[in-house]
Hints:
Layout: H1 4-13, H2 17-29, H3 39-49, H4 57-60, H5 66-79, H6 85-100, H7 107-116
GO cellular component, one term: mitochondrion
Protein name: Small ribosomal subunit protein mS33
Main location: mitochondrion
Amino acid sequence: xxxxxxxxxxxxxxxxxxxxxxxxxxxxxxxxxxxxxxxxxxxxxxxxxxxxxxxxxxxxxxxxxxxxxxxxxxxxxxxxxxxxxxxxxxxxxxxxxxxxxxxxxxxxxxxxxxxxx
Length: 117
């Protein structure tokens, strides 16, 4: 003697109007696509079924480690293992300014020296 579930599954596999409506109702209840659609539409269904990006913890709390990376690059530059061409250029320009006698003096230092005098 078959159980009620087996009878239900056999009924759904039949191609009667009642079976089709029950299959659609079952799909709607369990969050599946009610009416069979083409693969292009199924792609949209899959995208909307996924978790939204603004609630994904991995995306929200991601940040590159800028401070640690900068400190590492400075240390590697001191050891001669990393070449920072921009920093090299800035140091060379500063060296050339010193040779020409045009050293930058900060206004804050000038104000402090005037107050001390």
